[in-house]
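ERR on first pass: missing label on line 2. Operator R.T. fixed the label and resubmitted. Corrected input:
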Amino acid sequence: MFYIYCPHCGEHREEEEFHPKGQAHIVRPLDPDNCTDKEWGEYLYFRKNPRGLHHEMWVHAAGCRKFFNITRDTVTYEIKEVYKIGEQPSVVADS
Amino acid sequence: MQHYSGFGLFKHSLSHHENWQRAWRNPTPKKKYDVIIIGGGGHGLATAYYLAKNHNVTNVAVIEKGYLGGGNTARNTTIVRSNYLWDEAAHMYEHAMKLWEGLSQDLNYNVMFSQRGVLNLGHTLQDMRDIERRVNANRLNGIDGEVVDPQTIKEIVPHMDCSDNARYPIMGASWQPRGGVARHDAVAWGFARGADSFGVDLIQQTEVEDLIIEDGTIVGVKTNRYGDIMADRVGSVVAGNSGVVAKMAGFELPLESHPLQAMVSEPIKPILDTVVMSNHVHGYLSQSDKGDLVIGAGIDGWIGYGQRGSFPTVEHTMQAIVEMFPIFSRVRLNRQWGGIVDTCPDACPLITPTPVKNLFFNCGWGTGGFKATPGAGHIFADMLATGEANEMSKPFNMYRFHSGALIDEHGAAGVAH
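pass 2 clean. output:
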């Protein structure tokens, strides 16, 4: 059970209030008309799947319903930091 | 290889079962193999078995970091069925189903395959429309199945709550009589013993730490115990850790790894002689030969490699089971565990060549890998023997995510991934 801090509500709440929404910081192609099929495919379907630090997006679904980002270790499940959309993580994996 | 039979059982009983031959050797690896298979789970061992048996490629090593069949194969809910919607998936799972039907005889090993039937319940009008569509699609593909009404369900599973009083009353179901369960450990052990008898080296407690790639072609693997082992072709069958192996090879796969939990209750007397699955309340269960209820449901939505999940998923699963079977509300759970499943965005697996020459992947089965074990092994062995995708594996190419030719099986897989 995760105990997640919502940066919008300013409170720790239980995991059940939240939904994970996958990888954070996915940049939409800047010039979509000139993307190859490969570029589109990778934008839509290829995701980071690290064994270690992962930046992911969550939504406080049963609370304020706002999105934010979490940096989490996918092996120990430790939440390293929580930050708002638009901000950059301070904990980043080596590679 | 010693042949197992009733007579053998009797003969060995005279010496108190102390002289059975070991089921497989524990060899020191050679310097070079024709094929190295990374991962000694059900799929990896099945691949090795069919490589040797069907393609006469016996200079093969299976490298497993733990012990044989100790990963996801030991953690699943043993269900076997082939009632998938799309032609590509239906053909592949039906191919596996046909192999299941003769597997114990083929391996001379009792995998306890039991065709007790699989019910997929519908609780809404839309569920029923989807079920009718899927059953019709199955029948067009020559796969058995029928739509049954609550009356018939009540006869098949008398202890299920089929009344109108349920929160989500059961409106009907699809019924595949040929579906059922198989003993997961026995499947791994049977394939291991079969592969070993053809001379395949099963290398346990050895981890592949890196791949040796020269000019875009794989030539071997680096292991923690035996150093470099060379190979002409390498097949990766590491389920949840496929992304890690792909990273060693320098490319990404369209996968995410999630924990999938399963649990068993205390053993109770025989009460359920079929498999019951529900997409809508989302739980599935069967009863093992030992008497425990084997229960599963969905994955946790977040990426995890920890081989354990979260309590909200367990609670959600229990709600579904008690919704269907109020009679089980006071049965106690004995154990709960998690396996790591690598899920594809379209809920179909990857059986695929990769950007690295002579390196092949079999992964991305999500929550449905066990039922495909013999079929996947059969198809992947063909790929490793010929170096090319055959007709059955072509749709499961990883480049389908670039072309948009996706095989979206979320509905038929019946699980949230």
